[in-house]
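can u do me a favor
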């Protein structure tokens, strides 16, 4: 049957019908058939303050009654101006400038274009990027090019997405002192390609859609030193890690360093609307200065600085001050650490927790085939992908609901179905080396 609505990452011939949502409040949503589920993944990690938060709703309604949008060419709007100022205030001093765009992917594209044009403006054209294996930075063309070259979408789009340089990413180096073998290889690659690399791009602390691999602040500090040494810009993609997800407002807050470009999305607009911010350091911004219009940054999406999105984002930032969001993330982290500990079950490769991110990694995707239905029977919405059964809940989730999510994740791993589900391809896949989920979040 032909279907009008084309779904993401889905084989449309076999994809099940969507479950229609009729209402949502706090950490829960309701389905048309009357079921009420606690959202364990905050709608692809964006609904950080929960659904229909009264103060965000009020801000959005008020802004709609004034105006929702004006173009950002010749015309300005207070919410966009105030949001730019608020983001500068929240981030380290070198990041002084904010360029808005319409999604995490476009925010990453903007950062990549800024890096390329920055070097062009200096008379040193460089247009390649170094990224990390396992990475996922979005679905548009330049973003795809910095996603994992083997496990991501590259093979289908060869010839469209440019070929980049990829460095190894440790599976987990939470205790790395910054002197590991991976960094040796990173340095060799940087040295070899410094003349052509505009920037290195990385998701700081946690490679989320790339398989929830975690690395240490020391790894990032060393990376900052290396990029400075070899004259390459550093981009932090905090589309997923930003706004409290790793325990601090931004993952960079745990590192003591600052990138040249920072990309924010998802939680920025609290799951209410699409928007992203690309923040640039003084040095990058100054690289575009002058009287020559040709040095100006060449990008300008229709909806950049959308007043409604910016007003929503401002209301969301207020909630970090008024409702102790980071305290809630710390509580969630504790619950996850306790709840996911001691999971010594055959087929479970390991568990990882960072802030409001909790992950069970298994050895074979086939083991997770029934996990979503199992969780739904227990009133929980999770959506495993590849070998990962994970939660990234709204920060306002009640402790009892968080327990339900963790119990559903754990409980599934304790079922006979989990124990006996193995795919035929399993024999070809080593437990630690199985493919990551760098094909998006589907
Ligand atoms: C780290 C990261 N960067 C970029 C993106 C792309 O964001 P969007 O889906 O809003 O385009 C994602 C989406 O999951 C992401 O996780």
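np, heres the sequence
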């Amino acid at each position: 049957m032909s279907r009008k609505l084309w779904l993401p990452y889905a084989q449309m011939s076999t994809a099940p019908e969507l479950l229609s949502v009729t209402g949502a409040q706090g950490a829960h949503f309701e389905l048309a058939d009357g079921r009420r589920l606690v959202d364990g993944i905050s709608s692809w990690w964006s609904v950080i303050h929960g659904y229909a938060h009264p103060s965000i709703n009020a801000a959005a309604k008020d802004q709609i009654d004034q105006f929702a949008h004006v173009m950002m060419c010749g015309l300005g709007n207070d919410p966009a101006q105030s949001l730019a100022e608020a983001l500068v205030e929240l981030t380290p001093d070198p990041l002084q400038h904010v360029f808005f765009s319409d999604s995490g992917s476009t925010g990453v594209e903007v950062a990549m274009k800024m890096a390329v044009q920055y070097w062009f403006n200096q008379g040193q054209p460089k247009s390649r990027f170094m990224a990390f294996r396992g990475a996922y930075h979005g679905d548009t063309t330049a973003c795809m090019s910095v996603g994992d070259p083997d496990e991501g979408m590259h093979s289908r789009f060869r010839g469209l997405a440019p070929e980049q340089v990829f460095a190894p990413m440790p599976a987990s180096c939470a205790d790395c002192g910054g002197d590991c073998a991976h960094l040796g290889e990173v340095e060799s690659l940087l040295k070899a390609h410094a003349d052509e690399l505009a920037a290195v791009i990385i998701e700081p602390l946690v490679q989320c859609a790339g398989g929830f691999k975690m690395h240490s602040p020391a790894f990032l500090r060393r990376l900052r030193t290396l990029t400075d040494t070899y004259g390459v810009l550093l981009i932090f993609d905090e589309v997923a890690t930003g706004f409290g997800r790793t325990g601090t407002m931004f993952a960079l807050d745990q590192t003591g360093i600052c990138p040249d470009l920072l990309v924010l999305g998802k939680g920025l607009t609290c799951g209410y609307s699409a928007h992203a911010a690309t923040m640039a350091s003084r040095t990058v911004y100054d690289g575009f200065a002058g009287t020559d219009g040709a040095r100006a940054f060449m990008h300008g999406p229709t909806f950049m600085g959308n007043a409604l999105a910016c007003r929503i984002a401002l209301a969301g930032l207020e909630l970090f001050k008024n409702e102790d969001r980071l305290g809630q993330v710390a509580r969630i982290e504790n619950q996850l650490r306790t709840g996911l500990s001691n999971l010594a079950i055959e087929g479970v490769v390991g568990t990882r927790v960072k802030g409001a991110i909790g992950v069970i990694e298994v050895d074979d995707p086939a083991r997770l085939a029934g996990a979503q239905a199992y969780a739904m029977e227990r009133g929980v919405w999770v959506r495993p992908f590849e070998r990962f059964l994970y939660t990234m809940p709204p920060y306002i989730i009640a402790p009892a609901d968080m327990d339900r999510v963790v119990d559903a994740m754990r409980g599934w791993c304790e079922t006979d179905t989990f124990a006996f589900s193995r795919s035929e391809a399993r024999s070809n896949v080593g437990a630690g080396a199985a493919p990551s989920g760098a094909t998006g979040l589907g």
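The chain is about 30% helix and 15% strand. hope that helps!!
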